[in-house]
Specification:
Blueprint (H helix, E strand, L loop, with lengths): L3 H36 L6 H24 L3 H9 L3 H10 L5 H7 L2 H9 L3 H8 L4 H7 L5 H10 L2 H11 L16 E2 L5 H11 L8 E5 L5 E6 H6 L6 H4 L13 H11 L3 E5 L5 E6 H19 L12 H28 L1 H6 L2 H29 L8 H31 L2 H31 L8 H25 L1
Parallel strand pairs: 1-2
Antiparallel strand pairs: 2-3, 4-5
Length: about 475
């Protein structure tokens, strides 16, 4: 048995070694070329100098090219993402043209844009023509309009219609991720006939774990898992062995729901049908996993207030544009918090300890609020939160906040008493901590729910908003209580 963490660590080390080897070869290439160039030749020998430099250039890059040929397309994508733009483009030029399309699909959107910008129309068209229709749908949005039009013109009628259909669906719909490479059979044949048909095909589409049973009008009747073909009598009819109650999806279904179904029912593939139950494609577990990964990365970026995935080596200006929106919002909320503090300037001057203690109340509140938001966003994504359980959910979060507030607030009150010898200050700390955690619990539930109700992604900037509320609220509660009871 393989230990999964050990396998992951081994893969990570292997990728790291490949990256270091590529970097070393690039550095060697630059060093040798610089030495040759510095040595130079007399003016009348300039043609010979150019010839020497070209030979050295080709010799150095040949070793790097051989290394790239041994790597999987996903590993090359990893290396490209880890290289600065100049080195990235040098490596990209050495990749064999017949692998361009697969690598463009593997790299992140931001890195893909930098690679596409370095390719001319002919190269882009050649790379796109290597891909299947469902893969083209992933690449098409990043292609220049003229290249996309040329690509459409190069496809046959069926594939053109399929690509147009896929592109017509929103990114979060099943139709945007479905695959058209399917194998269908009729219900009125025997398993032996079906097996002979598969042998004539020579190969099956990737991730084929079942055949789709349809009538003459391509209406889906059921699915025939391959394992049933193996264990049943070959004289049996497909209709007697197939599963008529298969899990099916429609192109308009939300991809999040499909992902949940794949996890719940341990699916590898599933049919996609239109409103008339006509088979139009399939969705596979690798497409679902790609979607989940993209959504997970998007949620992490959104929680931090980033608008989109950022190339590590993007230009300074592009990175600034990506980050400024929520920083501007954060600045406004920070100004609000500062004005709250300004309202109690007199209290802080009389009791200096307030200035040292108030960040603790705000910080703990922000952390607690982020914990609540994470749970709520996850529940919304899994479809586990609805109107019928909102009251119970709110009671639970308020109970957790109250318990944490009293416990940690009590500990903090003892610390404040030990430091400043003022038991009233300690009681104010405990009360402020408890009230701010209750505020964090309420807003931690309400913020993602309100964003969802307004049609926005509940993960986008939610951490920024909860921090703003708990900072301003924490300062106001703590300083307000101190002003009432201590001054």
């Amino acid at each position: 048995m393989f230990d999964l963490p050990e396998v992951k660590e081994s893969l990570k080390e292997s990728l790291g070694e490949s990256l270091q080897q590529v970097i070393s070869l690039l550095e060697k290439h630059k060093l040798v070329e610089n030495l040759v160039h510095k040595q130079g030749m007399a003016k009348h020998d300039q043609p010979k100098q150019d010839l020497v430099e070209r030979l050295v250039h080709k010799q150095n890059l040949r070793e790097l090219q051989k290394k790239l040929e041994t790597l999987h397309t996903a590993d090359i994508a990893y290396i490209l993402e880890a290289l600065p733009l100049v080195d990235r483009l040098d490596v990209w030029e050495l990749v064999k043209a017949d692998r361009d399309g697969d690598i463009l699909l593997e790299v992140s959107d931001s890195v893909r844009q930098s690679l596409i910008a370095d390719m001319d129309s002919k190269e882009l068209l050649a790379a796109a023509e290597q891909l299947d229709t469902d893969e083209l749908a992933d690449l098409a949005p990043d292609l220049p309009k003229d290249v996309l039009q040329d690509l459409m013109d190069s496809l046959d009628t069926q594939n053109r219609e399929r690509l147009q259909s896929t592109l017509s669906y929103p990114e979060d719909a099943v139709g945007a991720h479905m695959d058209f490479d399917i194998v269908t059979i009729r219900e009125d044949i025997t398993l032996e006939v079906a097996l002979r048909y598969l042998r004539r095909l020579g190969s099956l589409p990737d991730l084929t774990d079942k055949l789709f049973v349809v009538d003459r009008n391509d209406i889906l009747l059921g699915v025939l898992p391959l394992k049933r073909m193996v264990v049943n009598d070959l004289d049996a009819n497909v209709a007697d062995v197939m599963a008529p109650d298969a899990v099916v999806f429609h192109p308009e279904d939300i991809s999040d729901e499909a992902a949940s179904a794949f996890e719940r029912y341990d699916l590898v593939t599933a049919p996609v049908v239109d409103k008339n139950n006509k088979l139009v494609g399939r969705i596979t577990v690798d497409a679902v996993m790609d979607y989940i990964r993209d959504e997970s990365e998007s949620d992490m970026l959104s929680m931090a207030g980033l608008r989109e995935e950022e190339d590590f080596f993007a230009s300074i200006w592009k990175s600034v544009q990506n980050r400024w929106a929520w920083l501007a919002i954060n600045l406004m909320t920070a100004l609000v918090a500062s004005r709250v503090i300004g309202l109690f300037e007199g209290s802080i001057q009389k009791i200096v300890a307030l200035a040292a203690l108030m960040p603790i109340v705000a910080g703990i509140g922000g952390n607690s609020g982020n914990q609540t938001i994470t749970m709520i966003v996850r529940g919304l994504a899994l479809g586990q939160i609805a109107s019928h359980n909102m009251q119970s959910l709110m009671k639970k979060e308020l109970g957790v906040a109250l318990m944490n507030g009293l416990f940690w607030g009590g500990i903090l009150s003892l610390i404040a008493f030990a430091l400043y010898g003022n038991y009233k200050l300690g009681l104010v700390m405990m009360a402020a901590m408890t009230l701010n955690l209750l505020l964090a619990a309420i807003m931690g539930v309400m913020i993602p729910l309100m964003m969802t109700k307004s049609g926005r992604d509940p993960a986008v900037g939610s951490s920024v908003l909860i921090t703003a509320v708990t900072d301003s609220g924490g300062f106001f509660i703590f300083l307000g209580l101190a002003t009432i009871f201590l001054i």
